[in-house]
Amino acid sequence: MQETPDTPATQEERLAALTDRLRTVYDLGAAQALMHWDQETYMPPQAVGLRSEQLATLSRLSHEHLVSPETEATISALEGKDAPDPKTEAGATVRLARRSFDRATKLPESLVAESARATSLAQPAWVEARQRADFALFAPHLEGIIDLQRRTAECLGYGDHPYDALLDLYEPGARKAALELVFEELKERIVPLLARVTEAASREATARDSVLLGEFDEAAQEAFVRSVLTDLGYRWDRGRQDRVVHAFCINIGGPEDVRLTTNFSPARIDKALFTSMHEAGHGMYEQGVDPAYSRTPLGGGVSMGVHESQSRLFENLVGRSRPFWSHYLPRLKEAFPEAFAGVGTEAFYRAVNEARPGFIRIDSDELTYNLHILLRFELEVALIEGTLSVSDLPDAWNERMERYLGLVPENDALGVLQDVHWSAGLFGYFPTYTLGNVLSVQLYQAALEDHPEIPTETATGRFETLRGWMEEHVYRHGSRYDPEDLIPRATGRPLTAAPYLEYLEEKFTDLYAL
Amino acid sequence: MQETPDTPATQEERLAALTDRLRTVYDLGAAQALMHWDQETYMPPQAVGLRSEQLATLSRLSHEHLVSPETEATISALEGKDAPDPKTEAGATVRLARRSFDRATKLPESLVAESARATSLAQPAWVEARQRADFALFAPHLEGIIDLQRRTAECLGYGDHPYDALLDLYEPGARKAALELVFEELKERIVPLLARVTEAASREATARDSVLLGEFDEAAQEAFVRSVLTDLGYRWDRGRQDRVVHAFCINIGGPEDVRLTTNFSPARIDKALFTSMHEAGHGMYEQGVDPAYSRTPLGGGVSMGVHESQSRLFENLVGRSRPFWSHYLPRLKEAFPEAFAGVGTEAFYRAVNEARPGFIRIDSDELTYNLHILLRFELEVALIEGTLSVSDLPDAWNERMERYLGLVPENDALGVLQDVHWSAGLFGYFPTYTLGNVLSVQLYQAALEDHPEIPTETATGRFETLRGWMEEHVYRHGSRYDPEDLIPRATGRPLTAAPYLEYLEEKFTDLYAL
């Protein structure tokens, strides 16, 4: 081990030096997060160009601090003789610092710059292609991005499949082969279930969700949403909620500052509420991380999939449940005295759970959602490994839509062009949505085994037990345990799709009297 | 000149390298500005500690980038053979970069740290002292801060007087000796004028400003304020206005993002309006700087005094003028149909210009304001030079209050403890308020000489000519010219108090029929 005289002498001192150095990276990250939040909420429109320059500077500084030879030397020394026990916080810190350092250094600057340029050109091309429903306008950009994603995967390195390298960026430890098994299981049971639901629904005279339509004052919606989020346990003294075009949750550097955003649909009562409960799930996770992990590699949620488990848990398992509406429908009626006259809990519960195949992923229901993801997962794996060409992509999309959802999009704007992800170079991201769905039920069941009273509490608008269980088993650990360690610790077994499928089958068999 | 091989070879390349390096400093400054803005407007309360850590990191990074040996070498090389003409933008860039570098390097880190610690401890002590009206609680802190300010002045260096070194931080080129002449002139003419006004006012049965009192809906106030600011020419596509406890204007890195803040008093119609016009004066200055100066030393307003000239100009010379209210009173009555019945332009004009000696600077009127500043200027000069001790300060304050304003505060909360500045180590800052007042009239008169139609335009709610003149002669130059160059360029002569005094005498002689 080559060491300069001023390198700290003990492992303890080295760890302190590493943590100190990384704090700068995290604080620069917080500044970038605040700039992003501001850009989506309150920034004056003319400042777009200026802000992008500022963000580029902060991103460069952050990279410089992370990849410095001092960081490398310190991490290497910590990994050497007397390395901290991997099971301890110190061990996790070194492991996560190494992961960040490797990710930041494995990609040559030229590849990073080329990728940034390609996606920034692809964005407006994708917007135009979608507007005109003309895939040809986007195809050459997508080809370039896929090539860059392949090169990225080669630089990052992988065991079995290049897709694993990309997946790992969003879901550490996840592998394509394992995911395929999960998706296969989902496909085998959800596709026939959906067919039975669709058949049953076709015999109904009116759409179940028609009771959700009307004219709903935004201020009244906001007040109702706020009261629900307060009940769930989202802490307003450590967060806030603002209006944006596309909802998100963002952590500005620590559990003391985790902000939600949402948007209000004046014509539909459920949109803003479920969006907000979803984002509050993300938010409570970030707010619940051990404050001692702030500004260290242990801070923040561990993966996209675990994050999504929390948003889906509060959106679907809580928000689309009978006990929830037995408590909140009367309150919703108080907030909107003119609406929902004569609508009972059961009708409302059926309305917020209507399953209906559609073209658009973000408008899809709990049952069809994973089929949208499955399709994208299969296609992006094939694109990355080169068994599907970009020119064949729209046909492949439509063929799978028909097979899984029984629909063929009228045009590519309603099909292959609907999502922003690929134009932004986000390959390997989609499957984390389904991982989140699967894990939400596995975690909920584990909480229920410890506390069978959870549904009863939900029916009284209390969520301390459920949130407390998540806090204890998931939130507080931040990024300390990778998902493959965290999930068995929390639930006693590795990730498994069975509880999720049982939940879906039971719920929708009951809902549609199958 | 010692140069390493990779130092740029030509002066042009050196200038580009310097500008490039400083851009990082300005972008870090923009991130800090956004964090400050956010802290005052929307940040969750529990994030205070986290935010202060983040700000400390950004401040340290910014300092490190500014004071690096590379910066010094580049500036020195630029100042050497073939130095750019000081009259050019390049020359100004080098001059200003040198000033920033010297300020950042002349103070030893230990002194900076000691000052930060002293003021952060002094803040809560001052708050408590003011709450209890007990100067003794604050006195030891103030003694420490004055000692640190003296040491700061010694490190920065000065010609005649240590106060000059502090003054220069806020008003480059200003000198105590010159300021004393200005203040002497103001004192000689304002003190007797105020005495005559007070005597005349004492014969009036009711307070003139009673017509401004009532109950005013905040949303209606906000809409009215917004319409006035739009008319003035504040650009909402490059800014915004939010609510805070203490109003301010902040530039988030360039003319495309300059934000105002204000607060609304439900019981008084004039507070939010004049506060907003004041901040919009600052804001239009920053919005009007040549965009090519963005992220360089030439960007942003040049000094506190020139800045205050713009805020005072729009607050007082425009906002408290007859032509302004001949146009806006009818509009105010439309916004508040219940209020101001039977109040004419003249009565309203008199109401917003009521002169009445009071204890509190921030509540004072156009006539008495400078006496509050004069008193502080005299006292802080004496404190810095050591001719006044902290223990004698409250008596000296009260003695001067009686001499200049004819009042003695009942307690120190209404006297020497009222302002935050000294507890924050801001010595040399107060006089820039009066410089701004003086300069506002000098600039307004110069604009009027070029465009005698300005008051007529004001009376129709149009301000393009006035704002256009300021843009041409002040705003667009940013920091390129120091005030001592900028003022003669804009007005044809150096700073002079005569026009300001004539303005005050004419206005208040007329208002009080002296």
Automatic annotation (TrEMBL), chains A, B:
<keyword id="KW-0121">Carboxypeptidase</keyword>
<feature type="binding site">
    <location>
        <position position="278"/>
    </location>
    <ligand>
        <name>Zn(2+)</name>
    </ligand>
</feature>
<feature type="binding site">
    <location>
        <position position="282"/>
    </location>
    <ligand>
        <name>Zn(2+)</name>
    </ligand>
</feature>
<dbReference type="InterPro" id="IPR001333">
    <property type="entry name" value="Peptidase_M32_Taq"/>
</dbReference>
<comment type="similarity">
    <text>Belongs to the peptidase M32 family.</text>
</comment>
<protein>
    <recommendedName>
        <fullName>Metal-dependent carboxypeptidase</fullName>
        <ecNumber>3.4.17.19</ecNumber>
    </recommendedName>
</protein>
<dbReference type="GO" id="GO:0046872">
    <property type="term" value="F:metal ion binding"/>
</dbReference>
<keyword id="KW-0645">Protease</keyword>
<dbReference type="GO" id="GO:0006508">
    <property type="term" value="P:proteolysis"/>
</dbReference>
<keyword id="KW-0482">Metalloprotease</keyword>
<feature type="binding site">
    <location>
        <position position="308"/>
    </location>
    <ligand>
        <name>Zn(2+)</name>
    </ligand>
</feature>
<keyword id="KW-0479">Metal-binding</keyword>
<feature type="active site" description="Proton donor/acceptor">
    <location>
        <position position="279"/>
    </location>
</feature>
<keyword id="KW-0378">Hydrolase</keyword>
<comment type="function">
    <text>Broad specificity carboxypetidase that releases amino acids sequentially from the C-terminus, including neutral, aromatic, polar and basic residues.</text>
</comment>
<dbReference type="Pfam" id="PF02074">
    <property type="entry name" value="Peptidase_M32"/>
</dbReference>
<dbReference type="GO" id="GO:0004181">
    <property type="term" value="F:metallocarboxypeptidase activity"/>
</dbReference>
<keyword id="KW-0862">Zinc</keyword>
